[in-house]
Design brief:
ATP binding, Helicase, Ruva Protein, domain 3, 16 helices, globular, 7 strands, 408 residues, 5-stranded parallel beta sheet, Rossmann fold, alpha/beta, ATP-binding
Length: 408
């Protein structure tokens, strides 16, 4: 059903069906491929091959030898506690006769994720690493970063060292990278996950995974929890699958932190469809601030092209001219443009037997093939801005007006 909905151009309706499939089998390559299609994320060749494996006759497999646990040994997983000790999550031995649990090893199923399964990313970036995007950086500093970094002002105005920020905009425009830069600016650990990382096939497993994620974030504070593709989970209640509702409830519980201290834990999320996010997630103390991340500006586009050409043979490239002719291109579109130009030079080199550098002629040809992908998103956004009327999308409205003026 999900595949039919995707083929029919209705990814929003397909997402709940795919989420149900992932709940039943979190390792399903086919379901992961469909989720990537629904969310507009590229599918790697390895994932595509796993989702459509070639038919072959299975070889006979000998039954595995019976597993005999050592006397007195339990089954559990250890993880480091902040004080250096080790905590163990135990489980009854199969066939022990205690409770109504599984009676064989195969009945146990996958284990819930532990805090150690959400390690923070080691690479640190800051806003200086984000090319261009001056307006985005200024808004981030004014509304989010400056109050958090100035301890004296924070204390004077009783500002809590916690908060939430929802990044929204067209796909492929750098929301994840900006979230990582925010963590770098704050000197915080960055824990990044997607909904697919959280979903589990067992009842209650997804909620346990989310709980483990926030437990890890509290151990590492100051920390930034970044949840990508929030619309796959936190859609409006009328449209969201009942399978995902308990997960949204658990997320609200973690954000409200009645029993846990979230001081020093910041929650950032990204979505391509902010108008589909449950309003409960956008209430004060949760994702109460929104930041529009537009397609890259001219400076950023030139930098993306320069970076993509690094370590490739190129000659006479005018980054500024390319940037001028790629307004509305996302970062992903620009990377595709460079790849297309490089393919032309590669084919010529293969025919001649000599390496030919990439030139502006290659980019002129590539610009005839590659078009900006942000158009449909911006058309939808215009309708939202026109009819919302509540001030939620003022930044988006300003951007749309500036685009109209630039075309005159």
């Amino acid at each position: 059903m999900a595949e039919l909905l995707l083929d029919g151009g209705d990814p929003s309706a397909a997402i709940p069906h795919i989420a149900t499939a992932l709940q039943q089998d979190s390792e399903s390559a086919k379901a992961k491929e469909l989720m990537s299609r629904a969310l507009g994320t590229p599918v790697s060749p390895a994932e595509a091959a796993a989702a459509h494996p070639p038919e072959e006759t299975p070889a006979p497999v000998e039954p595995p030898p019976e597993r005999k646990p050592e006397p007195g040994a339990g089954v559990g997983f250890g993880f480091s506690e902040p004080d250096g000790g080790v905590a163990t999550m135990g489980r009854e031995e199969p066939g022990s006769g205690h409770g109504n649990g599984p009676t064989s090893w195969s009945d146990i199923g996958p284990d819930p994720l532990m805090p150690a399964d959400f390690p923070p990313e080691r690479e640190r970036v800051t806003l200086d690493d984000v090319a261009g995007m001056r307006n985005v950086k200024d808004r981030l500093n004014a509304s989010f970063l400056m109050p958090m970094r100035n301890e004296e002002l924070r204390k004077a105005y009783a500002k809590s060292l916690r908060g939430g920020l929802l990044l929204y905009g067209p796909p492929g425009c750098g929301k994840t990278f900006i979230a990582k830069a925010v963590a770098g600016e704050m000197g915080a650990k960055f824990l990044s996950v997607s909904v697919a990382d959280i979903l589990d096939s067992k009842t209650g497993g997804s909620e346990a995974n989310l709980q483990a994620l926030f437990r890890q974030a509290r151990q590492y504070r100051p920390s930034v929890v970044f949840l990508d593709e929030l619309d796959a989970m936190g859609g409006r209640r009328g449209a969201a699958s009942s399978v995902l509702r308990p997960l949204v409830t658990q997320l609200l519980t973690e954000l409200d932190s009645v029993e846990e201290d979230n001081e020093g834990v910041f929650f950032l999320a990204a979505t391509n469809h902010p108008w589909d996010i449950d309003s409960a997630l956008k209430r004060p103390g949760r994702l109460d601030r929104m930041l529009f991340v537009p397609p890259p500006d001219k400076e950023a586009r030139a930098t993306v092209v320069t970076t993509a050409l690094k370590d490739r043979p190129a000659s006479g490239i005018d980054d500024d001219k390319i940037a001028k002719h790629t307004e509305g291109f996302s970062g992903a579109d620009l990377a595709h443009l460079v790849d297309t130009a490089a393919e032309r030079a590669l084919l010529d080199s293969a025919r001649s037997g000599q390496v030919r550098p990439i030139t502006m002629d290659d980019f002129r040809e590539a610009l005839g093939e590659v078009r900006p992908s942000t158009g449909p998103w911006l058309e939808t956004a215009k309708n939202v801005v026109e009819f919302s009327g509540d001030g939620s999308y003022d930044e988006l409205a300003t951007y749309i007006r500036s685009q109209r003026r630039s075309r005159r």
